[in-house]
Hints:
The protein has helices at residues 2-23, 30-116, 134-148, 152-165, 172-185, 189-202, 209-222, 226-239, 244-256; strands spanning 121-125, 128-132.
Amino acid sequence: MRAMTMIRAAASLLLFCLWTATAAAGLFDDEEARKAILDLRQRVDAVRLLAEQGASRAGDDNAALRRSLLELQNQIEVLRAETAKLRGMNEQLSRDLADVQRRQKDVTQTVDERLRQFEPVKVTIDGREFVADPAEKRDFEAALAIFRQGDFVSAQSAFLDFLKRYPKSGYGSSALFWLGNAQYATRNYKEAMINFRALIAKEPEHLRAPEAVLSIANCQIELKDTRGARKTLEDLIKAYPQSEAAQAAKERLTRLK
């Protein structure tokens, strides 16, 4: 812009000089005046050409600048679009990662729950504490539930099956006790006595042992073995004098006499 201003000023100055020279032509010789005028006109034309060329170059520079700005704007728009796309992909990846983490947590929790189904559990029953497999605990409780429902025939099958499947189970003595009771309820007195005696022989200090002895005496009474029942009741009182079963045995002895 400063160059254009200087060119325009020079052209104006030359035009002024041309006008001055024309005005003063009368002071000089005609031939010299014409030469001076032609020289000034050539200079004016040269200055005008330079001005036009400078303006043309300035226009070209402005056009190039506008093209550069437009291209830069297009690049900015492309970058904005790519940034928005990347932001969207990042958000989707974040959601996908959260879903994967949630599913992994659910799977881990499910696996832990399934593993716990096979882990031994601590059990307390009839005053005894021991460790049992979950399946073992479930099967015993299922057999006991059948007994409590009054289905003594099915309860016998359930407890017999349990004792076969878990011969070393901590539930063994309790299973014998309830099996004997189920058999007593179905009047299978001889089999009931066998299982009550098995309990006493296996664990004479078991919480259910005094009741098992009393149940043997009851079976003997049902079988009309009064002498045997009296002997069993007397043994019960001697072996477990502080038990509730011993108090019941004393009452039975009084009735037997």
